[in-house]
Structures are given as structure tokens and as C-alpha cells.
Amino acid sequence: MAKVLVSDSIDPVGVEILSQVAQVDVKTGLSAEEIIQIIPEYDALMLRSSTRVTKEIVEAGSKLQIIGRAGVGVDNIDVPAATRQGIIVVNSPEGNTIAAAEHALAMMLSLSRHIPDANQSVKANKWERNRFIGTEVYKKNLGVVGLGKIGSHVAKVARSLGMKILAYDPFISKERADQLGCTLVDLELLFAESDFITLHVPKTSETQHLIGRETLAKMKPTVRIINCSRGGIIDELALIEALESGRIAGAALDVFEQEPLGESRLRELSNVILTPHLGASTTEAQVGVAVDVAEQIRDVLLGLPARSAVNIPGLTPDVMEKLRPYLQLAETMGNLVSQLAGGRCDSLNVRLQGELATKDSQPLVVAAIKGLLSQALRERVNYVNAAIEAKERGIRVIETRDASTRDYSGSIHLEANGSMGTHSVTGALLSTGEIRITDLDEFPINVPPSNHMLFTLHQDMPGIIGKIGALLGSFNVNIASMQVGRKIIRGDAVMALSLDDPLPEGLLSEITKVPGIRDAYTVKL
Ligand SMILES: NC(=O)c1ccc[n+]([C@@H]2O[C@H](COP(=O)([O-])OP(=O)(O)OC[C@H]3O[C@@H](n4cnc5c(N)ncnc54)[C@H](O)[C@@H]3O)[C@@H](O)[C@H]2O)c1
Ligand SMILES: O=C(O)[C@H](O)COP(=O)(O)O
Fold first, then answer.
1. What ligand is nearest to the CA atom of residue 279?
2. Is 56 strand, coil or helix?
3. What Gene Ontology biological process does one annotation of this record name (predicted)?
4. Which listed residue (259, 392, 399, 510) is catalytic?
5. Where are the domains of the chain?
6. Measuring CA to CA, which of 268, 288, 320, 371 is 20 to 30 A from 252?
7. How far is the CA of 147 from the centre of ligand 1 (A)?
8. Interatomic CA distance for residues 248 and 81, integer angstroms
9. Cβ atoms 346, 394 nearer than 8 A
10. Do the Cβ atoms of 268 and 243 come closer than 8 Å?
11. DSSP state, residue 134
12. Half-sphere exposure of residue 313, counting CA atoms within 13 Å on the CB side?
């Protein structure tokens, strides 16, 4: 019989479901070393946010088929390590949405009416009516950073409280924001105009310390900040300084840079409310996430596909085998075109060409959407949810098939319209299986994708390539390869450069100042 280790406390209904197919051991509070010792016995691991699944744990889990996160965030799991080892990682993307949104709203209202302090004061036999004068949220501006599942629900409820919602989410279309009654603004404006700011973004390199010394300085002195997303999105030290100096009025935090929260001046501040990562802690959410994840573990142990795998496509093994190299091609092209188009895409045209122009190749469309959304949703987007996520974001996906295109055996052409205009790319596979970008904005090129890329649209004229090379050199950026594509001599052209180093801040705008350069784009793949 299969064995499942449950390493954090989950609702008993989850254990019941798992027990249908496996021996279930619930062992909470284990250290990493203790887990490493016992994990070789287990076929599945189920956890919440308290267990940190490190690379060492994953590598020790020689029998592990699946890791199930009874919740949303998988940032406590080394997903790349699990993927490399062929372990499916599943989560419950929606099971605790309402709970987390309601917690953020409760934090906002508690903060505005001093409820925790007033409660303590009455319990200490005091009656301090003048000490706890609050602020109304009615007609105030609420800045929502991240208008995904939780952010959208917060926005909906806050609107019914009479608040005006300013939202920032570079991956949400204006139409979707309009539907939710939110005004889509840039971060500068959100920081400057908000009376309350609530964070609902994943933790990524872009969102790490999104709220820090510099951004806090741009806010109103009366602003109150709520974080029920992830620790580390706020620079805690900068927040403490801002709260101590009265630079901002208050904060309510459910998540912390280090959990459990250790020694911290946050505990001493009267204008702060702290909860111990309780966003998902409702009876309803815990039943929801436990059922959602336990069912997926049960199914995978029975040899069936998982519905919310964050790392393995939910495709049948034979289709998967046939399309495997093209799935990677479609995903890379989707990621590339989303960055060229500027993220906030409202349409994606997918043209499957040559021998890919068949019905069986439908998963390639999903792979292209997954790539398109990967900048916004990271590991949250998978083959199962990519199409739904695109629909919810108001992205129109148009598929066409053209069997007559014969320049490679099969190629994928994508065109996306986003905040930086309409851009297109075509990609194909060489007989060796290597990916080539064969077309950029209708200009023929032939370059392999690489981690750091620079693309320019320029006028074909003598000296321009040298100038770009010299400029990159002066910033110590090494060029790995370079190619120019043009249709006519001295007409418009594109340049595609693979770089060994990321482009330093400010260099892109220098490049666009070079005479003859019309546009320049930097891309990370
Ligand atoms: N406190 C808790 O107990 C608790 C419970 C559930 C979820 N969470 C956390 O809440 C967060 C949001 O969860 P969700 O289910 O709404 O996720 P989601 O994926 O539905 O939404 C996240 C949104 O953030 C946007 N985004 C990504 N990068 C951005 C950036 N740089 N700037 C602005 N927006 C950006 C995405 O476009 C997306 O719309 C996650 O971090 C999740 O782990 C916490
Ligand atoms: O990402 C999540 O789902 C939340 O942070 C909830 O975490 P928890 O399951 O440990 O309460």
C-alpha cells in the first residue's frame, strides 16, 4: 500500500480521502533533518506553509510521486527540484481565496477602528472612549496591488463599503479592471493617492521589497498598509522606521519575512496589528483545500492525472510524448512575445504551421498561453489552468492552423497585443531538437533563445551595429551572439542579441537614443 506523510495540520477530511488509497501518517512539527530521515518511505507528501520542502528533502524522497500543498503558495517548496525529479507538485489555487480576502478586509477595518487595542483595553477593566477614535473607509481610496483571485474579491467587497479602488497589476487588462469597478493605475499614483493599500501579489524578484524606504516616502502620512500575501514583499525594517517616525499611519500584517516571527520591534508598535499567517485559517477554507489536494494525491497514486499540477502538464502520456519538444517551443515563444508586447496583453493569436497544423496539437496553444502568462503568474499557471486564467484576464486567444507553411517541418507563430503594442514571433525546432526564433515582427532571423536577450527595431545603415556593440561594451555587457534581419537594404531591420549578462538599469533608454534605433526591447527567458 502507498504511504502518505502529512507534515502540517490539515482538516481530517483530507486524511479520510487519502486513507482510501494509502497509509497516512500525520507527523507535524518535524525538523528538516527528521523529514529527510523518513521521506524515503513515502509516495506522497501533503503540507501547508509551515513545512519547508528543501532540495535536500526532495532529493531524499526517492519514492515521492507527488507533493500536495493544501493552499495556494508553493514558495515553501523547491518546485524546480521536484520537477527535475519528476515529482508532481499540486496546490489548491482557489480553496482559500475567500478566506484570505476576508482576512485582509478584517485587518483593514480592525486597523481603521483600533479594534484589537480597544478590546484589550476593555478586558483590562478600562473604558477609554476617547483613546480609540477611528477613521471611516467610506469614500476612501483603497490601493489594491495584485488584482488576481484574492485582490479581485477584496476589490469587490471594498467597493460595496463605498471605497474607490485604485488597482495596480501589470498583467490585468483594462476591461477586466473595468468589470471589477477598479481604476487601473501605475504604482506611483497608487502609492500617492491611497488611504489604504492592500497587497495580493505572489513573491517574485519583482515584488520582493516592493514596499520599502523609497516607496514608503511616496505615500500619504495617513496611509495604512495591509499585507496578507507574502512576507518579504514589505521591507520590514523600512516599515518599522516609517511607523515609528509617523511617516505612515499604520499597518496590518499576516505574513512576515521570517515565520514564525522572531524578535521584532513590530511587536512594540501601537499602530500595527499582527496575526500569525491566519489568512487561510477558516473552517471552510481548510475543508476546501484539504479536499482539493487530498483528492489530487489520491488520483495520482491511482495513476490518474492531477487537475492543479503546478509543474507537470496534465496531458495524456502519449500526446505528451509526441508533443514534448514543441510544448517547450510554444511556451518559450509565449514568454518571449508577452515581454515584447509589454505584459498587459488583451489578445494572443496562435498560428500552428506545417505539420503542427493538426487537431492533436491543441496542447501547444495551451503551452503558448502558459508561456504568455508565466511572467505574471509564475508557477501558478499550468497546462490545466492557463486557458481559464487567460479568459479571466480578458485575453482573447485566436487559434489558426496553416498546413501550407513548409519552411520548417512545423513552426509556431504568435502575435500578442499588449501595453507596448502588437508584436509577433515565430519559432521552430531544428532536427537536433534545438529551438530557433525564425521571425520577429515579420523580419526573418535565426537565433536560439537565451537567458538575456536584446531586440532592436532600427534603420539598416552603416555603423549602427558597432554603436550598439560599443554601448553594451561600455556597460561591461558581453554579447554571446548577434543577428540582423531585414527585408530590403537600408530599410527597416531588426537586431537580435543574446547577452551573457542582464542589461543594467538605464541602458535600454541609452540604446533607444542611438540615431537610427526606433525601439529596443529586453527579454529574460
Ligand atoms: N495570508 C494567507 O494565508 C494567504 C492565503 C492565500 C493566498 N495568499 C497569498 O496571496 C497572494 C495572492 O494570491 P491569489 O490567489 O490572489 O493569486 P493570483 O495568482 O490569483 O493573483 C496574483 C496577482 O498578482 C499579479 N502580479 C504578479 N506580479 C505582479 C507585480 N509585480 N505587480 C503587481 N501585480 C502582480 C498577477 O497578475 C495576479 O493577477 C499570493 O502571494 C498567495 O500566496 C496568502
Ligand atoms: O498560500 C497560502 O495558501 C496561504 O499562505 C495559506 O497558508 P497556510 O496553509 O499555511 O495557512
1. 1
2. helix
3. L-serine biosynthetic process
4. 259
5. 3-94+284-302, 96-274, 312-441, 450-524
6. 288
7. 8
8. 41
9. yes
10. no
11. -
12. 25
Please name the residue that has the C-alpha cell 501558478. 380
Active-site annotation holds for 230: yes
Task: Give the helix ranges, DSSP H, for 302-383.
Answer: 317-341, 362-377
Sheet bearing 421-429, strands edge to edge:
396-402, 347-354, 410-418, 421-429, 435-440, 443-447
CATH architecture of 312-441: 2-Layer Sandwich (3.30)
- Cα separations in angstroms, 305 against 64, 90, 499: 16, 11, 39
Rounded to two decimals, the ipTM of the complex is 0.99
Query: Has domain 450-524 been given CATH number 3.30.70.260?
Result: yes
The pick from 8, 48, 227 for probing ligand 2's pocket by mutation, whose C-beta has the most ligand atoms within 8 angstroms, reads 48
Mean pLDDT, rounded, for 466-478: 93
Percent of the chain with pLDDT over 90: 82
- Same fold flag, 3-94+284-302 and 450-524: no
Please give the single-letter amino acid code of residue 189: L
pLDDT tens-digit readout, 220-238: 999 999 999 999 999 999 9
Half-sphere exposure of 455 (CA within 13 A, CB side): 26
Domain 96-274: which CATH number of 3.40.190.10, 3.40.50.720, 3.10.129.10, 1.10.3670.10 = 3.40.50.720
- In the numeric block, the cell 496534465 is attached to 314
pTM of this structure: 0.74
Q: Domain 3-94+284-302: which topology?
A: Rossmann fold (3.40.50)
Which ligand is closest to the CA of 210, given by its number? 1
Q: Residue written as cell 477584496?
A: 154
Give the pLDDT confidence of 503-514 residue by residue, as tens digits: 998 899 999 999
Ligand 2 atom nearest residue 255's Cα: 5
| DSSP β-bridge partners for residue 3 | 23
